[in-house]
Amino acid sequence: MTEVTGQMEVRSFDSPDEVREFAGHGHADAVTLANGKTALRGHYEPGWQWSKDVRPIAGTELCQVSHLGFCVAGQMDVTMPSGGDSQVVHMRAGDLARIPPGHDAWVVGEETCVFIDLGDVGSYAQSKT
User: Fold this and answer.
1) Which residues in 67-99 are b (16+ Cβ under 10 Å) and which e?
2) Helix, strand, coil percent content, the chain, rounded in steps of 5
3) Structural contact between residues 69 and 115, judged by C-beta atoms closer than 8 angstroms
4) What percent of the chain stands above pLDDT 90?
5) Helix (H) or strand (E) segment spanning residue 7
């Protein structure tokens, strides 16, 4: 559903503009608003890891996207190996997260991690070819 009134706009992830399939283990529903800002609802299935499921699409060693979002369900671990800090940060349902470029991430456990991402995700998981 799209609803536009004056300067306001309402969109639903249930009718995405695009579904971006990962190389395996999930997908992201992409919605782009009239102002050009894209938001994603990622479904990261058990076994998903950025370096296995998105790296082949992105073509970079680590994720170079800045994320800002809310974990709706499941759990995910994130690490920043490129910054010299290999500390792992754990994210679970109910957590807000800001993740800078240069990270790897993976789903923890047997539940799909659902993450609403309002970061710089306009080209996230889009093939460069």
Assistant:
1) bebebbebbbebbbebeeeeeeeebeeeeebeb
2) 10, 45, 45
3) yes
4) 84
5) none
Sign of CA dihedral 63, 117, 54, 113: positive
Amino acid occupying residue 86: S
User: pLDDT digits over 22-40, tens only?
Assistant: 999 999 999 999 999 999 9
Round to whole Å and give the CA distance between 72 and 92. 8
Other CB atoms within a 10 A radius of the CB of residue 115 amount to: 24
pLDDT at res. 129: 56
DSSP state, 83? G
Strand partners, 71: 115
**Tokens in use for 22?**
């990962």
Tell if the pTM clears 0.85, that is, is over it: yes
Q: Which single residue is written with the structure tokens 């479904």? A: 43
Flag residues of the chain having pLDDT under 50: none
Cross-strand pairs, 114 = 43, 73
